[in-house]
Amino acid sequence: MSQVPLSSSFDTPIDTRPMMDWNTMAWIDLWFEFIAISSILFYIACYYIGNSKNLRIARYWAQANISVWKENFAHVGNEDHKLVKDGPRDYIYYGSGRIYVQTCYALLRLVARHDPIQYIFDYFAGKDLYDRVTIDVLITETVCDSIVFALLPRKTATNVLKTRWDLDNFPKPRDMTGFPKEHYTMLTDCPEFTNVLWASPKVKKAFWKSLGLDEQGQGELNTHPIIEQISFTDLPYEKPKKLEDLAQPKMLQFVFRLPDFDKADASTTAYQRELSELVMEVIDIIGKHGKLSHEAKSKSIRLREIAAREIMRAEEEERKAVLADQKIKEKKEKMNEILKLSPESQRKAEAKLKKKEAKKLQSKRTKRA
């Protein structure tokens, strides 16, 4: 007689869920799948459209400026590509082989049109909301003396100075005849050099045009200046912790806001060339007038000596703090070792430790006397 297996509470329950019936299924039942697939397709479409537009902007800028760069540099880009893509939103354009210059790099940082998530993040973070190009020019070391200056829009100058130790501590504001002080601020540690810089007609014209005005201040004022920064320094951007980090290569930097090239006309393209010509003009002014008078050079050296003393003082205070922490740690370790001893050995060890400390204290007093 066969035995019938008894059911038990420990038996695995039978899956009684109904099987999917495609005949009775409605479209609403696949809502999650539709949302997932639609999101993926939307992201792919955004990436393709945004990446394509950024590439068009970068190529337009390169084409607008290539004639000026070729006239001034022996080598522009590499043999295969003048414009180097470093990502969907980053492009590099560089030149070398020019008097007064070691290297010149232009980094185009464009809006994250290819990435909706990054675009939303940048929007709420308030950064990278528009296209810009940053041009870094490494000046030959022996061409000029140590100079720090900056030309910044007045609205953004405070925020820039918060991130730049060199500009916040060395140059001072200066006003000059014909300078658009309502819209820009000039910082310099060497007025004799910035006087020569502002005397250049190309520099004046480029700055007034950046505002949408002529040199008499007439015209329609731009909401945002196109020239966002021109700075020159041989000091670190962040406060150095070590004395050897104080001296840096001489770096000339330009930051320009890029226009909407889809709406660009001949004048927009021409002004982009003028900005490249401005870069070359400032390079030549540094090369020809960067050797300072004895008085200006002495002032520049004195400012750097003051900064060097402050760094040395901070280094000494840090060393003292490290030594103090080390002594406290060693004392705690000795006390923990004493606590592990017998009561009689503890008394002897504590007496020996107090005697040693008293001897050190007496030695310090003798040295002071």
The secondary-structure element order is: HEEEEHEEHHEEHHEEHHH
Number of DSSP strand runs: 10
- Count up the helices: 9
The best one-word shape is: flat
Percent range of helical residues: 40-55%
Alpha-carbon Rg, integer: 33 Å
Mean residue pLDDT: 86
Spans with pLDDT under 50 lasting ≥5 residues?
Answer: 6-10
Secondary structure class reads alpha+beta
Query: How would a textbook summarize the main sheet?
Result: 10 strands, antiparallel
In terms of DSSP E residues, the strand content is: 15-25%
What is the terminal separation in angstroms?
112 Å
How would you describe the overall organization of this protein?
The chain is an alpha+beta fold and 369 residues long. It has nine helices and ten strands. Strands 1, 2, 3, 4, 5, 6, 7, 8, 9 and 10 form a ten-stranded antiparallel beta sheet that branches. Strand 2 (83-85) and strand 3 form a beta hairpin. The longest helix has 46 residues, at 294-339.
Features:
369 residues, alpha+beta, flat
SSE order and pairing:
Layout: H1 31-72, E1 75-76, E2 83-85, E3 90-96, E4 101-109, H2 116-125, E5 132-139, E6 149-153, H3 157-163, H4 165-169, E7 172-174, E8 184-188, H5 191-198, H6 201-210, E9 227-233, E10 251-257, H7 266-289, H8 294-339, H9 343-368
Helix pairs in contact: 1-7, 6-7
